[in-house]
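In the previous lecture we treated proteins in isolation. Real proteins rarely work alone, and many bind small molecules. This record shows how such a complex is specified: first the sequence, then the SMILES for LGQLAAA5.
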Amino acid sequence: MAADIRVKVCGLSTPQDVDCVARAGAAYAGFVFFEKSPRNVSYETAATLAAAAPVGLCKVALTVNAGDAELDALTEAVPLDMLQLHGKETPQRVAEVKARYGLPVMKAIGVADAADLAQIDIYSDVADQLLIDAKPPKGADLPGGNGLAFDWRLLAGRKYWRKPWMLAGGLTPDNVAEAIRMTGARQVDVSSGVESAPGVKDADLIRAFVEHTTG
Ligand SMILES: O=C(O)c1ccccc1N[C@@H]1O[C@H](COP(=O)(O)O)[C@@H](O)[C@H]1O
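The predicted 3D structure, ligand included, written as tokens:
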């Protein structure tokens, strides 16, 4: 397996999480701003965590259908390197957010079957990166972070898209190597798969996850 897989660990909420993620060699640290999530953090907490992150660790804010007022307050309070839009934001909204905040934008695309892959091309016109995640189950409280994988065979043979992309959804230390092998992903994103309980990151699982991407 290639040794240069870039890892994002999402849903960090303590200084120990950030330290562990950085030391393990992850490229991105994700903070969740979505009240229904067990990983939700206040702007104050996120600002402290982001300020303590080492240079080079990309600090990503995950939001869901956030309006300008929410994003204004977030970007004012927290030093960020990237915005992750994980709701039903339209391509036009992605372009607006990118222009208004001057930060790279990663748009999450939910995939359940081959028809969903068309969204990847559509959002490639406006987003800087794409996060290809499992579609949430109907009626789920969370649009992501559900620990669900989609059928990775849908991405087999489609390693190259027009924009950089990350594989997400139900990844764990045990399955990430196989997911990379099947999809050709060069970037992977994990949240619940490195937790001991919802919202509680586990340092051993984080280290194991990163190690298993470099097989
Ligand atoms: O993690 C969350 O709580 C969350 C809430 C709302 C939207 C997205 C969320 N997480 C993102 O979903 C992917 C996949 O999660 P998992 O690994 O299957 O648990 C995660 O990497 C986050 O980017």
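Summary for your notes: Helices lie at 15-24, 43-52, 68-77, 91-101, 118-124, 176-183, 203-212. Residues 10-11, 30, 32, 34, 37, 39, 62, 64, 86, 133, 142-148, 168-171, 189-193 surround LGQLAAA5 (CB under 6 Å).
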